[in-house]
Write a structure and sequence with these properties.
- Keywords: Ribonucleoprotein, Ribosomal protein, RNA-binding, rRNA-binding.
- Located on the platform of the 30S subunit, it bridges several disparate RNA helices of the 16S rRNA. Forms part of the Shine-Dalgarno cleft in the 70S ribosome.
- Pfam families: Ribosomal_S11.
- The chain contains two helices and five strands.
- The protein has about 130 residues and is an alpha/beta fold.
- The protein has a single domain, classed as Ribosomal protein S11/S14 (Nucleotidyltransferase, domain 5, 2-Layer Sandwich).
- A five-stranded mixed beta sheet has the order 3-2-1-4-5, covered by helices on one side.
Length: about 130
């Protein structure tokens, strides 16, 4: 018979880092403590959006709200924000975190920029 599993208790982390990864196809919001250990996360696909709807600003907003709610449950009150990627949901995710009642101290853009590295995708002809 399987051993009963203990429920993980909520940690109290007053200060942390919010990582927003916004690509052309999806938005992922992760809250971590100062050391980088993940506290909670949320992605557009997990919020019920599929296919091209995952990349919309509205999906990013709901994703950030969901992750911020989980972070508030863990006692997070103040965050630094690292934004990575060129996606559509960058600003909406930041606004959603702010409106959830979490104080934002710093916003950093950590998008990786190549020094002429890999060849980019071909331009779309629609």
């Amino acid at each position: 018979m399987a051993k009963p599993r203990k429920r993980r208790e909520k940690r109290n982390i007053p200060k942390g880092v919010a990582h927003i990864q916004s690509t052309f196809n999806n938005t992922i919001v992760t809250f971590s403590d100062i050391n980088g250990n993940t506290v909670c996360w949320s992605a557009s696909g997990g919020e019920g959006f599929k296919n091209s709807r995952k990349s919309t600003p509205y999906a990013a907003q709901l994703t950030a709200e969901s992750a911020a709610k989980k972070a508030l449950d863990n006692g997070m009150r103040e965050v630094e924000i690292n934004v990575k990627g060129p996606g559509a949901g960058r600003e909406n995710a930041i606004r959603a975190i702010q409106s959830a009642g979490i104080k934002i101290t710093v916003i950093r853009d950590t998008t990786p920029v190549p020094h002429n590295g890999c060849r980019p995708r071909k331009k779309r002809r629609v």
